[in-house]
Specification:
Structural class: alpha/beta
Strand content: 15-25%
Largest sheet: 10 strands, mixed
Helix content: 25-40%
Mean pLDDT: 85
CATH class of the largest domain: Alpha Beta
Shape: globular
Low-confidence stretches: 1-40
Number of strands: 20
Number of helices: 13
Number of domains: 2
Radius of gyration: 23 Å
CATH topology of the largest domain: Alkaline Phosphatase, subunit A
Oligomer: single chain
CATH architecture of the largest domain: 3-Layer(aba) Sandwich
């Protein structure tokens, strides 16, 4: 009888068949990985239609009635006073309030063979309308940015729970042993690390944060040493790895956090050798750089992020979040709705470039591109009649690729674009559907913590079968 649990490394070291099992695992692939003591890889529950997700997060809340949810009645009734009894107003005033309708300042037109509507804010993205699946009846939890952003990422408005990227990483891992399974590019939204954190999942499944450098390039923090040649760094890393493993094996009880930390250091070393090549955009052709808008100061920043997303996608990263917006500038226009035009101009060409590039390379077939914010905006005015308030009750998100129907619109808001009234999709439903496309059952993807099984969708969520091709 054993007095203490043995570590995975100790078992492999002392078992005659241990390395044979490792070799077999390498041949069989990660879906059938030998379960690790800290949870390891779950693998798929059914045949996947997508291998990865690129999430284009529009922090602040894009106005659906000014982008992809055309409402002629809103223009016709501009200035009319109506009583709104919504969650945002109830949270602010405790009662229904009278508000003045605000027409969209931008023109809409139909695009593609599907004939779906889009405003002049997104002409580049609209050219891909036949590749998109527009979800017009989205609704979510949280009326303020912090709770709603946290809910978008983790399925909870207040508890610290694993982000969706961490759940995907926990289940599937990376397709590349030298790169993480989850990367968040310049995250700056409320909630900070919780939006890409692993919470109670083993720490190695948290997102790797990719940041902008002073040279308008991107890097993984604390990954390189400029004062030593790579050969000397390699020697140091090798010594540290051996010392760390000796220390881990000598422990009388299994320490999942220590093992996760050591594995993260080893992964960091692998990334140090491989990531610089992936982050180096100079290897791309001028035509590709221009396609993403990197030749224009207005679109350069988000264009670089989207191009990096494609490179990470090609390299085997499972979940890539491409963030737009910060506390100093985002889609949250309470009193200056015309600023939507500035933000749209910064992201539209890069997004169109990403869709074009993925499609040309055959990557869109097994990659889901997910675009949207934490909520939408109201059809009534705010801030002296020049802005719009938060609207969690009805907004638009679009998806493309990865076995999702294309040139398709699902759900509907009322005639003013305020609340979802038909084929509504809750954020839990969206999470469940995205996991489904990756071959994961949202009800079975669980992790035991504090005495009960947790999942991304809590006790809710349904797979929206109608949008699956």
């Amino acid at each position: 009888m054993f007095d203490n649990l043995m570590s995975r490394r100790l078992i492999l070291r002392q078992s005659a068949c241990g390395f044979g099992a490792v070799a077999a695992n390498a041949l069989l692939g990660s879906t059938f990985a030998v379960p690790a003591a800290n949870g390891g890889l779950v693998g798929t529950h059914h045949a996947p239609k997508a291998k990865r997700i690129i999430f284009l997060f529009m922090f602040g809340g894009v106005s659906q009635v000014d982008s992809f949810d055309y409402k002629p009645a809103l223009n016709q009734r501009h200035g009319e006073l109506l009583t709104f009894n919504d969650a945002r107003q109830l949270a602010k005033t405790g009662k229904a309030t009278e508000q003045k309708l605000l027409a969209s300042p931008w023109k809409f037109k139909q695009y593609g063979q599907s004939g779906h509507w889009a405003s002049e804010l997104f002409p580049g993205t609209a050219e891909h309308i036949d590749d998109l699946c527009l979800l017009h009846g989205m609704h979510t939890e949280g009326v303020a940015h912090g709770p709603a952003t946290l809910f978008l990422h983790s399925g909870s408005t207040n508890m610290t729970r694993p982000s969706m990227g961490s759940w995907v990483n926990y289940a599937l891992g990376s397709e590349n042993e030298n790169l993480p399974g989850f990367v968040s590019i310049t995250p700056k939204a409320p909630g900070g690390p919780r939006n890409y954190g692993a919470a109670f999942l083993p720490p190695k499944f948290q997102g790797t944060r990719l940041v902008s450098t002073s040279a308008e390039q991107f890097a993984i923090e604390n990954l390189t040493r400029d004062d030593l040649p790579i050969s000397e760094v390699a020697k140091q890393v090798d010594v540290l790895k051996r010392l760390n493993r000796i220390q881990l094996d000598r422990r009388s009880t299994y320490d999942s956090e220590l093992e996760a930390a050591l594995e993260s250091y080893e992964l960091a070393w692998k990334m140090q050798r491989m990531a610089p090549e992936i982050l180096d955009l100079s290897t791309e052709t001028k035509a590709t750089l221009n396609m993403y808008g990197i030749d224009d100061p207005v679109t350069k920043d988000y264009g670089q992020k989207c191009l990096l997303a494609r490179r990470l996608c090609e390299s085997g990263v499972r979940f890539i979040e491409v963030n737009y917006g910060s506390d100093s500038g985002n889609w949250d226009q309470h009193s200056d709705l015309p600023k939507h035009a500035d933000h749209a101009k910064a992201v539209d060409r890069p997004i169109a470039g990403l869709l074009t590039d993925l499609k040309q390379r055959g990557l869109l077939d097994d990659t889901i591109v997910w675009w949207g914010g934490e909520f939408g905006r109201t059809p009534y005015s705010e801030g002296k009649g020049t802005g719009r308030d938060h609207n969690p009750g009805g907004f638009t998100v679009w998806l493309a690729g990865g076995g999702i129907k294309s040139g398709f619109a699902y759900g509907k808001t009322d005639e003013l674009g305020f609340a979802g009234i038909d084929e509504r999709v809750h954020m839990h439903d969206l999470h469940a559907t995205l996991l489904h496309q990756l071959g994961l059952d949202h009800k079975r993807l669980t992790y035991k913590h504090a005495g009960r099984d947790f999942r991304l969708t809590d006790v809710h969520g349904r797979v929206v079968q109608d949008i699956i091709a």
